[in-house]
What does this fold into?
Amino acid sequence: HSVSNGEVRVSSNLTRVYAVLQVEIPIVPEADIERAIAVTNRVGSEMYAEPEWSTKLLEAPAFGAIPSVSDLGVTLRAIGRVQGADRFTAASELRRRLLVAFAAENITIAQRLRQPAP
It folds into this structure.
């Protein structure tokens, strides 16, 4: 689509003040959900406390919701506010830290079973 500048009447900048960081991690149904939530909150607080991230994160990322439950597992969602320009790098770093912390705590990440090759 091509829109000429003269046709634009309203535009919105959704990251002018802040952006929402959102990370979803699926865990197996047998996992201790309360412990996984506690680990999520701890990891978000630790990240926020670091000087490198304290200027990029506007609040500590924390557990926000369980957006889905299926036979594959339970999805935990961590949310937080972040500087708009840092939303992708912060989400990636939080995801990495959560994966490391869940592995250390023996919280298993849910995975889809691979289809056998034909």
